[in-house]
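Quick start: what a row looks like.
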Amino acid sequence: MIMKKTTLYTAIVSSMLSAGIANAAPTMSANIELNTDVYDKSVSETTYEQDGRVELTAYNKHTSGDNFIEGKGAIELKVDNSSYVADVYAKIGNSKWDVQVGHFEAINLFPKGKDTLVSNAGGVAVYEANLARGRADDGGQIALHFAPSDSLKIEIGTIYGDDDTNGDNKAAFSGIRPIAILSTDAATFTAGYESVKYDLAAGGDVSKTGYSIGANFDVSSANVNVAMTHLKDDSTGVDKEVDSFVINMTAGNFGLGLISSTEDNAGSETSVMTAYTAYTMPVFDIENASVTLAASYSTADDVAASQDDEILATRVRINYTF
């Protein structure tokens, strides 16, 4: 009887494997990230900080021909005893289109490369074209993806409700963010627009629009990102424009980048420039374990005397995926 049951179980498992059912089990993963920092500032006292988190992720995907459904959940448990839900979404579609609903990040229009540490001086705004990118804290997200061809991809991201605890929650879609990505043999080009508009519960409104263009390409063994952005903020009581630029390269375990930004507040202009770098090393040749050394140097012009117009920051980051 035992032999017969063993034979039966073996046959069932073999049938499941051949049918692909065994692949239905979700993928579970976790990783640790710990940062030890020093911030040397021109006005404030030098500070020494340490933070980190554990990220727990579950992911699965099922297919039927060209159609699919996938889901992901990720939560971060931080050393300050707080927690953060990074991703909770479902995506349904096929190779030509899909719809994604939940809590997630849309396409990055301001890629900073190996940005292990970027500390901008002076409180000057840097516009990363991410007002409606997602991971909304007080709103939802719906994104549509289209692939008209192998070289052209389109994403239309939205913020469902408003991502503001001070909003009146009367806007069905407070943010929209259409993006086009064109891939060629020489480079990949991106262009995006975003608009965020909703009313505040206490009166007044939020009205912001922004644009971005960028390119990604290889130069010898290095991968290079370049992006330019513009923000116009016409919210109640605000008259602000921000122009930002980023260029960076990553070659193997080494990365280097530069960010510049100019903020115009009703004719009062401030600016910031930040250089950053990072290098990652393995830990005793142990797989999935690394230490990254990073530094950032930033200067700001025409900021208030109380602001730190110069910041030198360093970081040691430990990563371990298990």
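That is the whole record. DSSP finds one helix and 16 strands in the chain. Confidence is low (pLDDT under 50) at residues 1-22.
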